[in-house]
Write a structure and sequence with these properties.
The protein is 34% helix and 12% strand. With 302 residues, it is α/β, with parallel strands linked by helices. The protein has one domain: 3-Layer(aba) Sandwich (Rossmann fold), CATH 3.40.50.720. A seven-stranded parallel β-sheet has the order 3-2-1-4-5-6-7, sandwiched between helices. Strand 1, helix 1 and strand 2 form a beta-alpha-beta unit. Helix 1 packs across helix 8 and helix 4 packs parallel to helix 6. The longest helix is centred in the middle third of the chain and has 22 residues.
Length: 302
Amino acid sequence: MAPRTSTSTGDEPVQTSDRIQPGRMPAQHLEPGEQEADLELQPRFKAPDYLGSQKLKGRIALISGGDSGIGRAVAVIFAREGADVAIIYHSSDEDAEETRRHVEEEGTRCLLLRGDVRDREWCKQAVERTVQTLGGLDILVNNAGYHKHVDSIMDIDDERLCETWEINMGGYFRLTQAALPHLKRGSSIVNTGSVTGLRGSADLLDYASTKGAIHAFTKSLASNLLERGIRVNAVAPGPVWTPLNPSDIPAQEVAEFGRDADMKRPAQPEELSPAYVFLAAPSCSSYITGIVLPVTGSVGSI
């Protein structure tokens, strides 16, 4: 059999559908306080080619980090599948309101919850408000995250180490603990992992470590909740165009973001969100629990 030919040559970004995705990112650095609305190239989250079919009709989802990036894309596509959505966000009010607008345009309800996943009591209150306002809880998407690039492990002090772990890993634990009393047979938890948790990252040591821990947490929790009929899975994205990276690296490096993936470009959030529908919807994945699904734009990420 003759070898398959690539859809691109040389350094040309690989395109795999009729919807052509951006290849080169703008050389832009986000300053503290700037958000998704300030990006020159707006991340694509609307997934116009995705047609909903009520896979999540009547269900209620709580999404941390739902104001922008992957979380926003998941919120919108969940709404298109019929779910009411509560969104946890830290401080980006403008981004959160934009997400709510798009969720409501899909015809479902959206509750905004501003707070800090490092605060155990606040996590409990966020879940309670979701249940009281929207009428229950069926899906938890743990997605809020933080990272900062460093050149050496010596650059990571205790304060930085604690911040990364408290947000990325502690937040997942606290929200899960708060949500569990309200989840029932048929409910699901979807965690956001990372390709860095599968293969490491030289300049994201603490972040990659938390993502590896999230993968282990996913598998362990799946075993723990199996008899209750609650499924737990994770998505491990590769490079994705969200506000996280432009806020952390110099503009000239942002312009090359995602070029080291086999597809020679980063994903857009709308290319990730269907994976969350797949893992959240019993109609798609009732026999799947404890997996880490790589969506990385590269071959051999596991």
